[in-house]
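Comment on the following before class.
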Amino acid sequence: MENRICKLFGIEHPIIQAGMIWCSGWELASEVSNAGGLGIIGAGSMYPDIFRIQVKKCKAATKKPFAVNVPMLYPNVEELMQIIIEEGVPIVFTSAGNPKTWTPILKDKGIIVVHVVSSVKFALKSQEAGVDAVVAEGFEAGGHNGREETTTFCLIPMVSDVLNIPLIAAGGIGTGKQILAARILGADAVQIGSRFVATLESSAHQAFKETVVKTKEGGTELTLKELTPVRLIKNEFYQEIQKAYSRKAGIEEIKELLGRARAKKGMFEGDLINGELEIGQISGLINNILPAKKVVENLITEYKDALLNQSHL
């Protein structure tokens, strides 16, 4: 399965574990990297001092490449970037912001930069900004999402047609068959989030992991589009949002209802009633909680089986 992404990152398999807030600590990232993929620490939910500790622990737990994901809207982004440079993090995934801001600075330090987008327009802007690769994420994805609501398997061929740099597909991918489909459509690799939430090494609360496993088709919805679109499990908090919409609540009331730290409350602390439970549509295909290494192994086996079966068509 070696290709441009494997060569760029120095990894064995073109499988990237998404840097999800509250779920992607050093335990998960190092385990995925040790299994031959690329593990990512999700810095968006970490204070700078905690982030530095996470990076140090990941470096101690794996000798293979790993990355960090930094949402550029993060209040302490300058501190995070300084830690990345000081600790010698080899690969950075940026999101939720203009890639021109940090790409030249990071690349000047020899760091590989990847930017996450949800449209052809921003994929091209990222390429112009000098990033080394792009993640194109469809609206099936969990967590915060693009406003275009373009599905992954429509977005990937459109982006692939206009990019010269490597492309990573994301959003609603969690099986080996989907990896093959994404690669046929033009992706060099895939980024997988939700499937890695339901792993032993994920830093998500056990109650949240079990809820992900129980979530079936139609159990999530993209909502809060007036603020930042986010895909949520339909729990009690989600129902409160829908009630607010039904009475035509204004944006200020919606903001007040959302409050602060909802994602931490739900995903990290396990408050399944009042918390934000962010997960992708692929949750309907997640039926168990496994070691991250086993997830990677299963994905590779499924991919090879799908490739063999496809050759018979």
